[in-house]
Amino acid sequence: MNAPNRNLPLRSPNTPAHESFSDAGAAVARLQELYKAATEFLCERFQDTLASGAADEKYRAFYPEIRFTATSYGTVDSRLSFGHVAEPGTYSTTVTRPDLFENYLTQQIGWLIENHKAPVEIGPSLTPMPVHFAVANDASVTVPQEGATEFVLRDVFDVPDLSTTNDDIVNGFGFTYEDGSHPLAPFTAQRVDYSLARLAHYTATDPRHFQNHVLFTNYQFYVDEFEAFARTMLADEDSGYTAFVGPGNQVIETSDAPMDVPAKLPQMPTYHLKRKHGAGITLVNIGVGPSNARTATDHIAVLRPHAWLMVGHCAGLRNSQRLGDFVLAHAYLREDHVLDDDLPVWVPVPALAEIQIALENAVGAVSDIAGYDLKRIMRTGTVASVDNRNWELGDIKGPVQRLSQSRAIALDMESATIAANGFRFRVPYGTLLCVSDKPLHGELKLPGMASDFYRTQVSRHLLIGIRAMEALREMPLERIHSRKLRSFEETAFL
Question: For FRET with 200, which of 133, 231, 394, 449 sits at 20 to 30 Å CA-CA?
């Protein structure tokens, strides 16, 4: 290997200077132009350097950025929780994958221009683009591990920088960029790129397939039912659904098309029932545990979904509950511990009226039960989420006392995590669980009982989640993305 040379001359692509835009479409087109120039430059230089095995220059390209300057304290429509800045100042955000986020960026920039009657400025940022993320969209190119090349990678190209991939913005830690500008969007470009890479790894599907309405579950049975539902929808020309995507980016567009099960499923198998403009439904089987729940939501959040719901199984804690009853969470007891540093447990995670109503109406419609009679099959109350799957095997006095004091009616390992991360990332959230066992009352999850339960309840439960999402899909964005999830200082972009 050649000796490291840290004094190589720097070479960057020629890119247009910053320019003002009063048309959102033209602004996004410029973002795409800048991003394409940066990624093509890095990919070409990287392949050339790999082939030659030597480097006599350091190559650097920059993420494009959006900048916006507000000069007035004039009040924008106070009903809106997004699409405007709160006070005069300069705001900015770096941007990645403007092709993937084209609709989102056009929408967000458009609202900003319209609400403030002022242009945005588009140009290259001062944030270097890591070569790993630049080549991520080219399947024929991979970045070798350190020491596998004839040159020192970090001497020649920029690599991911953890200092620009943190969550200080969404965590509300008073983040300000080095140039003094305030954040315009909740995530930096590197944070988004990092999550896009993680999503592809954990779900084995390309992020472009993700839909705006996401269901999380903790059992494979729901996946089987989701595929059956998807095939029914594809057989109906009037359903509006256009394709079904599974792990390995397998795409089917007809109800009878085969979909092979990969020999090795990813950690979180994910399936997408697609609809125009991302208005379909994504189902993620996160498996069991709060760590998986956090991992999935940490990364899906950068796609800015309009809602996510947990539809899984739980332990019923009340003697009046029966196996198969539904639990609609209106509060959460957080003993999962995976988000304590980012969202302290003293922060309330409230129920969202729009989600609650959609779920309750869906339960009634699918079960053909209305009004007071819904109480026969569904309870509303506190859901506790823990990180110890075998909590029943220890001294249960302490846990049972806390569960009773919190008025908990159900216990699982994922729901509070998903709701808390929804609160943290300003993604509308909700939980509808199905009671699969009652450990405090001698009804344990045994094989025979479980099989009968799954046969009778999974299909109905999943359909309820789907119907709730379809109702939320019809809701105006300003209603679903309400002010309830916004803090004192918020970004203009959702």
Answer: 231
How far is it, in rounded angstroms, from Cα 285 to Cα 269?
Answer: 6
Q: Which of 169, 171, 170, 487 lies closest to 342, judged by CA?
A: 171
Domains and CATH numbers, the chain: 10-199 (3.30.1730.10), 205-474 (3.40.50.1580)
β-pair partners for 435: 314
Q: What contacts 455, CB < 8 A, 6 or more positions away? A: none
| pTM greater than 0.85 (yes/no) | yes
Contacts of 162 (CB under 8 A, 6+ apart): none
Q: Kindly state the helix (H) or strand (E) to which residue 156 belongs, with its residue range.
A: helix 153-156
Rounded-to-integer distance, Cα 410 and Cα 433, Å: 8
Amino acid at position 452, single letter: D
Amino acid making up residue 273 = L
Phi-psi region of 114 (alpha: psi -120 to 50; beta: other; left: phi over 0): alpha
Look at the block and give the residue holding tokens 């970045």: 143
| 249-254 average pLDDT score | 96
The arithmetic mean of pLDDT across residues 448-462, rounded, is 72
Coil, strand, or helix at residue 354?
helix
Q: What Å distances lie between residue 48 and 36, 54, 128, 135, 148, CA to CA?
A: 18, 9, 20, 13, 16
136, 97 Cβ separation under 8 angstroms: no
* Pair of tokens at residue 340: 């304590």
Per-residue confidence at 54, pLDDT binned at 50, 70, 90? confident
CB 235 within 8 A of CB 255: yes
Give me the amino acid identity at 126: L
CA distance 206 to 202: 10
- Give the three-class secondary structure for 113: helix
| CA pair distance 165, 125, nearest whole angstrom | 16
User: Which residues make beta-bridge pairs with 94?
Assistant: 65
What does the alpha-carbon distance between residue 45 and residue 401 come to, in Å, rounded to a whole number? 63
**Mean pLDDT value across residues 436-460:** 66
CA 42 to chain centre: 28
User: What is the distance between the alpha carbons of residues 435 and 323, in angstroms, rounded to a whole number?
Assistant: 5
Q: Which of these, 135, 154, 105, 136, lies nearest to 44 by C-alpha position?
A: 135
